[in-house]
């Protein structure tokens, strides 16, 4: 099975074996158990559970808000990466370090903080309220929470790639008469796109499954602001393990199909 | 702007720095976004936590249920992080030092927990070890409780933090290659000597970086732990779950006080992360000079 680079270095069997055993015990076997549990259902029963109107509404909400949040991060994250890489200005190091805050901050803390800010009587929410719309307890609030927790993904994948692009290339293009937009379109976009897509996919996958930061700001109304992970929780609280499992399986399968598609797009870009 | 009198060097200069206006706008945007989106949430947590004064703040943190939640969070971190460190080193070792068939599948599997919802991570353990789960009856006969008890909380925490250390070490160890280890072996070091005296010093800062990220997630995990905890106050509540309970009881001041404690831990973690990152960069720079 193995073709070692270096026959002198010991530990191949030990480390591969330990890695496989640990991964199987912690991740693979439990995940497989979920699929086995779901297999107790007939296809029709499974289909009936995952196409129930309440489940479909949650499915649409979860994937929709995660997608919008990933797009927002795709834009803002790229701008932030640009600002942090290309400009030196007072406070740059502080902002750079704080970009990772959403990863370090427990999601429950992020959830209650954002709710306090964007609730109709909150510091920011009151202005929205004056203008006649609500942010917290609507899909907009969910998108906001997801944008917060997934902020670092795009910044941190685009940043190193942007830093590695030699500036001479852009300068040469500008000297040859390229307009800034042309430099962007023909030099920066092709170089950054694979990393951007990776960041986008990570943010999207995290957003679909995110629970802690969302449930405080969502309002959790069935059919309106109930996300898929919450629906799994609700089913578990009702001891409906089969229902929870069916939704879990569906969620995993849909996520993997989407990640696979993003992966394929990425490969086509990298090897034209 | 693009008059023909402009020299090529100033065009190049403009391309490098952007026009002063767009440069200022973008930096302004960065600052605005940082203030509104990252700084304000921090400020509101602290200000709400201190709303009723310092006394109430410390009462909320030092209350027995909060302390037992803190203890449980620390236990979960102390067990899950070292296990994932051993796994991460072992996984990075076999992925970066050898080539074998199925390696890319293995790397994908290591990353798998990142794309699984934390709620599902909790659910799978309930299906395995819960009363109606595969091992439920056997566990009950032997009077062992996993779900709704400490072992379940630890398992769920391990699940969601499996990839962190491995993910940091794999690219670092691939970059470093195998030459130094081979040299150690040829000079007569045995496997463990090679590992402790050559590999560990090389990967030290990457390892610390991975541990920091892993600790942050383990300490703050909510969804997965929420499913398996059973929410028994003072018994199976971690700090983030304690925040939720207080918040749902409309005890907002206490909720934000405990949240402030978590926030301070998060900022401390950011500092550690920054420090280990700068050490890695310094090592890279000195390696590039040689």
TrEMBL record, chain A:
Its main location: membrane. PROSITE patterns: ABC_TM1. The keyword Transmembrane helix applies. It is found in: Cell membrane. Keywords: Membrane, Sulfate transport, Transmembrane, Transmembrane helix, Transport. It is a multi-pass membrane protein. GO terms for cellular component: plasma membrane. The chain crosses the membrane at residues 12-36, 56-85, 97-119, 131-155, 186-205, 241-265. Residues 59-262 form the ABC transmembrane type-1 domain. The keyword Transport applies. It holds the Pfam family BPD_transp_1. One of its GO terms (molecular function) is ABC-type sulfate transporter activity. SUPFAM superfamilies: MetI-like. Belongs to the binding-protein-dependent transport system permease family. CysTW subfamily. The complex is composed of two ATP-binding proteins (CysA), two transmembrane proteins (CysT and CysW) and a solute-binding protein (CysP). Part of the ABC transporter complex (TC 3.A.1.6.1) involved in sulfate/thiosulfate import. PANTHER family: SULFATE TRANSPORT SYSTEM PERMEASE PROTEIN, SULFATE TRANSPORT SYSTEM PERMEASE PROTEIN CYST. This is Sulfate transport system permease protein CysT. The lineage of its organism: Bacteria, Pseudomonadati, Pseudomonadota, Gammaproteobacteria, Pseudomonadales.
UniProtKB/TrEMBL annotation, chain B:
InterPro entries: CysW_permease, MetI-like, MetI-like_sf, Sulph_transpt2. Its main location: membrane. Residues 70-273 form the ABC transmembrane type-1 domain. The chain crosses the membrane at residues 25-46, 66-93, 105-126, 146-166, 207-232, 252-272. One of its GO terms (molecular function) is ABC-type sulfate transporter activity. It comes from the Bacteria. GO terms for cellular component: plasma membrane. PANTHER family: SULFATE TRANSPORT SYSTEM PERMEASE PROTEIN, SULFATE TRANSPORT SYSTEM PERMEASE PROTEIN CYSW. This is Sulfate transport system permease protein CysW. The gene is cysW.
